[in-house]
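Notes from hallway chat w/ T.B., transcribed later so I don't forget. T.B. wanted the structure written out for a chain they're using in a teaching module, and asked if we could keep both sequence and structure tokens in one place. Agreed to drop them here.
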Amino acid sequence: MTESIMSKAATMEIPINSNGDTGTLTEDDSLEQAANLQWSLDEKVGSSRDTRDLQQVMVSGPNLNETSIVSGGYGGTAEGIIPTSSIKDLRMKARRSNVPPNSNVICHLAGPPHEYQGSNMHHSSSSSSMTAEEMTRGVAVEKLETVKKWGYNTYKCTKQMISERFGRGSRTVDLELEAQIEVLRDTKRKYENMLRLARALTNHFYNMVQTQHALGDTFADLSQKSPELRDEFGYNAETQKLLCKNGETLLGAVNFFVSSINTLVNKTMEDTLMTIKMYENARLEFDAYRSDLEELSLGPRDAVAMARIDAAQQQYHVHKEKYERLRSDVTIKLKFLEENKVKVMHKQLLLFHNAISAYFAGNQQQLEQTLKQFNIKLRPPGADKPSWLEEQ
């Protein structure tokens, strides 16, 4: 009976499907079950028969050395083919070392561990490359959509601008706001001219003060070298030094006046004009999409046209809200700009008048009092030049 069982075990076939897989069992399970069966048979026969009888029984069946089990699916590499002789050697080692048949040693025959690690690394690298490619493709699509929207918007605005210049298109006009904007632009041009003249006066007066300072030094030197004209040269030297000192005080007041006007013109007014420019661009976009909606409304009413009309209405409402928001911002900024301009110019004009009057009247005390009134501090000569420590 034992011999019949061994003969059947030796002639057992492992079912292989069309893809090279062992039926419904995995490779490791098939190998482990074969090892378990062989282990049980060896235990039954080992006590009564010697190793030569077992070899004869094994020889009576099919040649297992010529049998191979394919690991992996169809189209696998030659490295996945496991010769049965390796399995038999492993069984003999397991019997000698008393290793149980369900050990994981047989499972390692399915292939070297580095093959599975290489496969995992290959799949991870391929997935990461696919992810990077998808991200790059997404960024390119996003940029393409942005350029497409920009080109479509630019085309509509250019078309609207040309239509307005040739009198073919209508434009939205706020008469009160347009008048205030025109007044602001005219005021800015006049203030820029005033600033240019004030800077010219500052440069000329600075040159005059430097000339007076040099002339005073010359008079003082001549008073030491001309004993017969010592007193006359001395009087003139003292007068030029006093005028130079008062001139430096006046320069401090005029420079403060120029700096305040420059801030008002090139920062405050310029900021308001930038908002006005944004408002005008929003007005042009609004009129462009409004004209587009009007043209579509006069056309046919089929399904495609209705879809375009709905999209145009959405764009129209979006640009209308933007236009109204910027119009409100411009109105508020114009109001605050006017209030700020009046406050700043009231202070600066009073400073300029008092400083000029005190200087040409020769009233040194009033000139110094004017600077204290407006919290103007004069920098000592050479303060514009940084020290050697600051240059390091």
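Follow-up for T.B.: Strands lie at 68-70, 81-83. Might be a good example for the class.
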